[in-house]
Amino acid sequence: MSESLPVATVRTQVTVPLRFPDGYSTTARLFTFDGLVDGREHLAFALGDTGAAERDGGAPLVRPHSECLTGDVFGSQRCDCGPQLREAVQRIADVGGYLLYLRQEGRGIGLYAKLDAYALQDAGLDTFEANVALGHAEDERDYTVAAQMLAALGVGPIAVLSNNPEKTEQLGRLGVTVTEQVPTGVFLSPANAEYLAAKASRAARTADLPFVR
């Protein structure tokens, strides 16, 4: 049974050119919203021809991407967030769809707490254990606002670009029809190997990592 969603509405739409450090560029339509349940400033990026997949009998590609200041903006290699964001923008632009940029830093615990968790990881805990040691859940993200944003944009069935089945499951409970879950690439480096291994083993990610049994 789907949960009842409070109604959100589009507040502003503006066209913004995007350019990434590797030279890739595209254009996005950015949407802001009124009525999102947590009151945060989440954004939707419409990329490519958003109606193309539906006209062909499919569904637009949607990436719910949680904000990561260190990875998305400053290129930190402790996680794979920056490369996933870069990949998602191009893949969505190629086929048409939406990137939902969700202000849920540190799997929902906030920026300062995420950096506290980094310190605990340096002392030997994995990324999930560190959150718990700080008094948080392993993952505190809630995708209600993502479902609200899609409803406000008039988006029907979607294909979700993610390795995390929890995103698909939450969206389904919130009344979003997910036709398929499309995996992202695996962006492995010496700096994030333990982080990715923890995600693959502890959070049921679909990524096929060579060091995870």
Automatic annotation (TrEMBL):
It holds the Pfam family GTP_cyclohydro2. Its EC number is 3.5.4.25. Its cofactor is Zn(2+). Coiled coil: none annotated. CDD domains: GTP_cyclohydro2. NCBIfam families: PRK00393.1 (NF001591). It comes from the Bacteria. Residues 20-183 form the GTP cyclohydrolase II domain. Keywords: GTP-binding, Hydrolase, Metal-binding, Nucleotide-binding, Riboflavin biosynthesis, Zinc. It catalyses: GTP + 4 H2O = 2,5-diamino-6-hydroxy-4-(5-phosphoribosylamino)-pyrimidine + formate + 2 phosphate + 3 H(+). Pathway: Cofactor biosynthesis; riboflavin biosynthesis; 5-amino-6-(D-ribitylamino)uracil from GTP: step 1/4. This is GTP cyclohydrolase II.
